[in-house]
Design brief:
serine-type endopeptidase activity; six-stranded antiparallel beta barrel; mainly beta; Pdz3 Domain; Thrombin, subunit H; 40% strand; Peptidase_S1C; single chain
């Protein structure tokens, strides 16, 4: 089974002092041109001494190794022996819990001379200690400025005193094309800094599933475990991406690696250093990909784009006059293939920026100017722990707003009351009435639009309880019996 694992060859003609050229000749019998090779002895050292060394010397000092450690509780007993685990299972143990230390390694890139380092969020995880080792073997303890699981990026800071550290120059815009040569620099398998070369195999990969804002550069670089968080560099010396994952059946490189583009790195870096938190702008739409059937219905010759299915009232798209049924084909001159790509393009911009959307409406194409805005926080969260004698006793809930939903990884167009925590000792925890992430839609057949609605309903005495929740991927209608048993069925 193919697994996603977090984590080039360029042939220079002129080997052994022989230069190979191509000459086109016309075949008299067929009238076609044929190409033959002409071998020539090189006349200058520059013809055989082609090298990536200047780029590596410029960027490599800014690529660091990252070592993390985390203490976890573990039970030790004689049954931890592999012989007993074969019969008892991995989870069988007794005795006092003892601490053990989990260690991991990865890579990072210094992007500011005062010690700001970019890496992957999965590299640091929930580490208790983070150590950054420079290419010249100097070691520093690092603090986390910001960690964003949704983009799989983390921003660290190290203190090198008054000294300016070497930095990698972030590419200003994402302009890599398929076939461009790139270098991957990192610390694979912890063996030390390693450089590999290759090409950009694809751009704008969105169906990878590594992060919520998946939009990756694909490369055939030899990216392996330990390369995660390292640099993907163009031959200009610009940092064009942060290596983050590979496709592999074994965990080793198979020539398919993915890097987070520089524009997303810049966006997260800006949030970490300026705002301190990530609040992404949005268009305020819900959409669906344009399939072959939809493409034929709207007059397109091929699938592609995002059809607007819903608009947030007062959101940027609604204020600009867009309507359900409009198809977004492009943004700022870039094609839009699916909703992930559209979200990436807007997430890397700032509130107040204007974007140009290419819209298809009634068979006609036109360009619409839309001013991006921050996701609103209306209504207020009103995070509340529920008490009393009812099935929801012991759960913590809050009002969904577009901004709060975005933080939780929920569709920002959702509204209602979301379950945030469930006490294990509560009836809800013991019997599974609700789970964290459930959106409570109605109780006792009464609409629950806010926490206040839920409080009012649960304050009244009820003989039996019925309710509806939205659980990821489905709607459930549930009923609670007097003995505490709960029965749920998927709602149509």
């Amino acid at each position: 089974m193919m697994r996603v694992r977090f984590c080039l060859s360029f042939l220079v003609l002129g080997v052994l002092g022989v230069s190979i050229g191509a000459v086109a000749q016309e075949d008299g019998d067929t009238g076609r041109e044929e190409t033959s090779l002409v071998r020539q002895v090189p006349t200058a050292s520059s013809e055989v001494l082609l090298s990536y060394a200047p780029v590596v010397k410029e960027v490599a000092p800014a690529v660091v190794n990252i070592y993390t450690a985390r203490k976890v509780a573990a039970r030790q007993s004689v049954f931890s022996d592999s012989f007993f685990r074969r019969f008892m299972g991995d989870n069988f143990s007794f005795g006092a819990p003892r601490e053990r230390v989990q260690r991991s390694l990865g890579s990072g890139v210094i992007v500011r001379a005062d010690g700001v380092v970019v890496t992957n969020n999965h590299v640091i995880g929930e580490a208790d200690t983070i150590k950054v080792v420079l290419a010249d073997r100097r070691e520093y303890d690092a603090e986390v400025i910001l960690a964003d699981a949704r983009t799989d990026l983390a921003i660290l800071r190290i203190d090198a005193g008054e000294e300016d550290l070497p930095v990698a120059r972030l590419a200003q815009i994402d302009q890599m094309e398929v076939g461009d040569i790139v270098l991957a620099i990192g610390n694979p398998f912890g063996i030390g800094q390693t450089v590999t070369s290759g090409i950009v195999s694809a751009t704008a990969r969105t169906q990878v599933g590594v992060s919520d804002f998946g939009f990756f550069l694909q490369t055939d670089a030899a990216v392996n475990p330990g390369n995660s968080g390292g640099a993907l560099v163009a031959l200009t010396g610009d940092l064009v991406g942060i290596n983050t994952a590979i496709f592999s059946r074994t965990g080793d490189t198979s020539g398919i690696g993915f890097a987070i583009p520089a524009s997303m790195v810049r966006s997260v870096l800006r949030a970490a250093l300026d705002e301190g938190e990530i609040i992404r702008p949005w268009l305020g739409i819900a959409g669906q990909p344009v399939t072959s059937d939809i493409a034929r219905a709207v007059g397109l010759d091929r699938p592609g784009g995002v059809m607007i299915s819903d608009l947030y009232a007062g959101g940027p798209a609604a204020l600009s006059g867009l309507e359900p049924g409009d198809v977004i084909l492009g943004i700022d001159g870039e094609d839009v293939v699916d909703e992930r790509g559209l979200r990436f393009r807007t997430a890397t911009r700032e509130a107040g920026d204007h974007v140009q959307l290419l819209i298809l409406r009634d068979g006609e194409r036109s360009v619409w100017d839309v001013e991006l805005a921050l996701l609103p926080e209306v209504p207020e969260r009103q995070i509340t722990r529920l008490d009393g004698r009812h099935p929801f006793q012991g759960i913590t809930v809050g009002n969904l707003s577009p901004r709060f939903a975005e933080e939780l990884g929920v569709d920002p167009m959702r509204s209602g009351v979301v379950t945030l925590e469930v006490s294990r000792r509560s009836p809800a925890g013991r019997f599974g009435f609700v789970r964290p992430g459930d959106i409570i839609l109605n109780v006792q057949n009464e609409l629950v639009a806010s926490v206040d609605d839920l409080l009012a309903i649960t304050e009244r005495p009820w003989e039996n309880w019925v309710y509806r929740v939205r659980r990821p991927g489905r709607l459930l209608d549930c009923a609670v019996a007097k003995n505490g048993a709960v029965e749920c069925r998927v709602s149509g």
